[in-house]
Predict the 3D structure of the following.
Amino acid sequence: MPTRPHRLLVTAAAAAALLAGCSAPETPPVASSATLPTGPNDVQADLPPAAPSPTDDAASQAAAEAAATATMTSFIQVQLGATQWLAELSKHLTAAAHEAYVGTDPLEVPARQLTGPARYAGSTSAYLATVTVPTDVGDYQLLLVREGQGAPWLAETLTPPEGLR
């Protein structure tokens, strides 16, 4: 007849073996996102490919100056009704800038004419450009943005001269 400590050891070993057989089945490892198949409901499968990274070169700077000139040319067309003024200006604006100008009375725009060529004022990124546009009330600073190489420059902000802020 086994002694009490021996019976406890055998009972503990049997319980461990029994519990090992009752454990949950192993779950297969999760595949990395690089190996997951895409399907019709995959959000990333619906995204367009990213635009190529832009360059900050002379052609890009000239395009930013042209975009700033076009933006300000639309901005100073104050004789248009508010609806048409915003429609024309919005062609040159980001969605956020468009929302900022909704409800603006164009007759409150102080500038009436451009007085010189736009000047590229610098950038901290090839996706951004600051351009100065001289007007009859002083220089406006435009912050332009673009999504990638070949994407149009759009105005994010039009900052009036210091005395008009």
